[in-house]
Recover the amino acids of this structure.
């Protein structure tokens, strides 16, 4: 399970937001079997991408703070 989650994280890291939105735009209706509004597809895509960006920025801040205390 850990390797699967690691692979998922590595794949998501390299994908731009526009591709995530595009994939969700076509993938979610196929999975749910119905038509979904645009906000339902854009919101999860943006959440995934910006969560990754937030983690990267937080790690950068932590690294800078650790260097300043040394």
């Amino acid at each position: 399970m850990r390797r699967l989650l690691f692979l998922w994280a590595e794949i998501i890291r390299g994908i731009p937001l526009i591709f995530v939105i595009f994939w969700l735009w076509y993938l979610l209706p196929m999975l749910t079997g119905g038509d979904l509004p645009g906000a339902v597809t854009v919101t999860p895509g943006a959440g995934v991408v910006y969560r990754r960006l937030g983690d990267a920025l937080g790690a950068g801040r932590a690294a800078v703070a650790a260097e300043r205390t040394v």
